[in-house]
């Protein structure tokens, strides 16, 4: 999927990268650094990716490099520590990258409403595979369990608009 990138920030400096690596006590994957060169802090829209177990989510923004530690601290409030957030996912969640030696660079979906390591679901082996998973969002991607919906009203004109009629 070709991502429509808006408002990307400049690539982080070598010194800024070295400083973050020193704090994390790990060398960041080159693939992540390459992503930052193109999409540091960039907003994207209209995409979705599948999460094993039947759910899906979209990415709204790649996390600006200078906010990684702040966002990481927010994630760590519920438990997981060996992960670096790389993007904001729908619903206040994150897409993050594992820093664990056994799965270094693997990409996970982090559900902020679930405590501890159970909040993490592996979605890809690396950033390239994750980016390849992104596809255009379609209203047909929204699947609701009938038991979860009591009653819904949608303005008929709005419904035509979202269906592209």
TrEMBL record:
Pfam annotation, one family: SMI1_KNR4
InterPro entries registered for this protein in UniProt: Knr4/Smi1-like_dom (IPR018958), Knr4/Smi1-like_sf (IPR037883)
Protein's name according to its UniProt entry: Uncharacterized protein
Protein species of origin: Burkholderia ubonensis
């Amino acid at each position: 999927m070709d991502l429509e990138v808006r408002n990307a920030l400049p690539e982080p400096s070598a010194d800024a990268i070295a400083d973050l690596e020193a704090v994390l006590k790990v060398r960041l994957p080159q693939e992540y650094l390459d992503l930052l060169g193109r999409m540091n802090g960039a907003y994207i829209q209209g995409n979705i990716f599948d999460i094993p177990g039947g759910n899906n989510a979209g990415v709204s923004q790649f996390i600006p490099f200078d906010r990684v530690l702040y966002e990481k601290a927010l994630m760590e409030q519920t438990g997981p520590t060996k992960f670096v957030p790389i993007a904001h996912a729908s619903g206040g969640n994150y897409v993050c990258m594992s820093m664990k030696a056994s799965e270094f660079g693997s990409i996970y979906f982090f559900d902020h409403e679930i405590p501890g390591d159970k909040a993490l679901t592996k979605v890809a082996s690396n950033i390239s595979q994750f980016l390849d998973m992104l596809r255009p969002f379609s209203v047909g991607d929204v699947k609701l369990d009938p038991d979860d919906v009591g009653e819904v009203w949608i303005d008929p004109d709005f419904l035509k608009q979202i269906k592209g009629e």
